[in-house]
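Final report, closing paragraph on structural work. Over the funding period we assembled a curated collection of sequence-structure pairs, and we close with a single example.
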Amino acid sequence: MSSIIQELHNKLVNKEISCVSLVQEKLAALTANELNSVNFILNDYALNLAKKVDAKIAKGESIGILEGIPFGIKDVYLLQGTYSSASSDFLKKYKSPYTATAIQKLLDAGAIPVVKENCDSFGHGSSSENTVFGPVKNALDANKVAGGSSGGSAVNVAKEYTAFSIGGDTGGSIRQPAGYNGVYGLKPTYGKISRYGLMAYASSTDCVGPFAKSLEDLQLVLNTMAGKDFRDQTSFDSEQVTNDHLTSGLTKGTKIGYYKNFIETDALNAEMKAAFKETLAKLEAEGMEIVPLDFFDADTVVATYYALAMAETASNLARLDGTMYGNRAEGKDLKEIYSVTRSENFTEETKRRIVGGNQVLSQGHSEEIYNKAQAIRQNISNKFDEDFNTVDVILSPVTPNPVPEIGNVMKDPKTMYLSDAYTVGFSLGGLPTLTTPVALETGLQITAAKRQEAILFTTANFLKQVL
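Its predicted structure, as stored:
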């Protein structure tokens, strides 16, 4: 797939299309779509920006590569003056007072937001069904889920309603829907892109990342958003991914690792297991060195992630009580106002995670659960450091099973949590991970050491050529 951004840029510069007509085309497609990928369409906002781009072109002024390019934003990011609902009743009428840093960088580069995209409420889900706007439908099969929590963003890119979209990944929320909808999705190293203006789910693993249909587009968007932000003290300056990383291939002898317990388990779908092993055999035939690795039990990793994530979301969502943000219910006293407001406006899954988080943090349990989970997390991080002294990249399935049908995931929360078994460990380690839509039904996941995004792109380009 060639760069959609470059193609649209060339058409704008050559006056084959106007920016207004391009934006109108995307707005019309978003309005007509029947996949529930849309929360709010930004008609006036987008068209006003498009007119400015056309005016620049008419004057003979040059435009940047992202200038005039329509993109989508997961509805957990703030964009000043627009609704930012997190797909919840709580914030359904909440207007953003400022703009998230990552989005502002795209605006500064001239990109045009056209839609706030449907997602699991507050990022709580693995299917984009936990939303007050209705479940998002898969771009490839409308009877199946889009994946979560950034399902709407993945669908809009897959259907080319947007040239690219910005999702959020806490435990797999970009990588999984990217795999489900056959597009690229990147969770960068924790801190590579500022989280300022992203509604927090679990602050210690939340990451901003892009969806795109090509590696070239993913690179452009990543480089634009990355960098230090004084508003987010976890952010840092980093090297950009260059064009060389997109065009070069892996050298013979590159060490590609995989976790044996991810593959040699009955939890992995038999067809996906066979496809993964076939992939390793092809890479070995191409001269790569395949290295089997050991890792923590999947149940342990998932339990560690959810203990910490639920604790953090309980803390982060404590501010939503009806006094300062969003909808407010009436009651006889302040305690009842808090109780009724939160009961009426949070979804069942969000309430489940808040209750679970408060249990983890409660007196008598924090030592037993939270502190133990933090210790295991450190052990996981140390294990990754050891593994990347041995291998260059790690390959894994994105999910253990094929894409489920709509309605099946929400019936069984435990199964939903276990669908994240192959993604949450890399989140706990803060590692950069890229979903590439090859080999398996839900794609392959490429993971590298911290701040090594470049090799993800080189590996993905290589896989695209040989698989």
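The chain has a mean pLDDT of 94. The chain has 17 helices and eleven strands. We thank the funder for supporting this effort.
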